[in-house]
Structure formats: C-alpha cells, structure tokens
C-alpha cells in the first residue's frame, strides 16, 4: 500500500465538534471541494461521488474513535482500494489539529497517474476542514 499524508492544520473548534461533523457523510457536502467532486450522494455512513481525473468513488465509515479518529474505506466499484483516516487532536482550549492520511492499493502505473491528485485532494480537504465553522 502506498501512503499519502496531508499537512497538519489548526482548527478553531474543539475535537468533539469536528468529530461529530466528520463522522456523518451527510455533513461532508459542505466541506468537499466542489470544483473537483460531482454527483455527491450520502446516507450518513457512506457516500458516492465522482472525482475529476479519477472517476467514481465510494466511501464508507469503517471505524471511529470518539473525538479522535474517523476511518473510511473505499466502497463499491472504485478505480483502486484505499483507506482514508482523519485524525484529530486537542490543541489548547477550543482548538484542534487535523491530519488526513490515505493508504491506497495502487500499482506503479496508477500511482504515476493519480498520486499528485491524491496529494492535492488531501491538501484541499484538510484546508476545507480547517477553515470550516463547526
């Protein structure tokens, strides 16, 4: 598996507030980068959408550690299997740190085609989460 790590960013919200928001896909439509993601559908624990230059993607929540981590896995027909982790850590009163990590099961040719897009996605989503008002 290939590992991609996003930056660590500060959030002006408590970990509990962020966790409650990101542990339900119905909320994600407000923070996803709309210019790269189309056809969003969700039902709380899973979602489906289309990513420019990658194709159709499905996610489902596979594990949660309250106020600390939400783990997602690829779901359904996707170009490659992957896991996405969003980690939260308290950073003072009413503040948090957030970090996103993707582990993807991709061959070297696919890695060359989508690696930079995964990095860009992690940076964009981390920015969106860090700037959102929870």
Q: Class by helix and strand content?
A: alpha+beta
Query: Which strand-content bin applies to the residues?
Result: 35-45%
So what's the oligomer here? single chain
Number of strands: 8
Distance between the termini: 33 Å
Question: Describe it for me?
Answer:
- The chain is 27% helix and 42% strand.
- It contains 3 helices and 8 strands, in the order ββααββββββα.
- A hairpin with a 3-residue loop joins β5 and β6.
Task: Explain the layout of strands and helices.
Elements: E1 2-5, E2 9-11, H1 15-22, H2 25-28, E3 37-42, E4 46-51, E5 55-65, E6 69-74, E7 81-90, E8 96-105, H3 108-131
Antiparallel strand pairs: 1-8, 2-8, 3-4, 4-5, 5-6, 6-7, 7-8
What labels describe this entry?
single chain; alpha+beta; 8-stranded antiparallel sheet; 3 helices; globular
């Amino acid at each position: 598996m290939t590992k991609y790590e996003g930056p660590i960013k500060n959030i002006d919200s408590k970990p509990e507030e962020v966790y409650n928001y990101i542990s339900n896909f119905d909320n994600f439509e407000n923070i996803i980068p709309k210019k790269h993601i189309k056809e969003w559908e969700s039902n709380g624990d899973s979602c489906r959408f289309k990513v420019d230059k990658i194709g159709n993607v499905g996610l489902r929540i596979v594990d949660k550690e309250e106020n600390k981590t939400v783990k997602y896995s690829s779901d359904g027909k996707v170009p490659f299997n992957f896991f996405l982790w969003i980690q939260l850590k308290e950073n003072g009163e009413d503040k948090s740190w957030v970090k996103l990590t993707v582990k993807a099961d991709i061959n070297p040719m696919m890695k060359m085609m989508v690696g930079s897009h995964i990095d860009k996605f992690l940076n964009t989503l981390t920015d969106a989460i860090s700037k959102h008002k929870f």
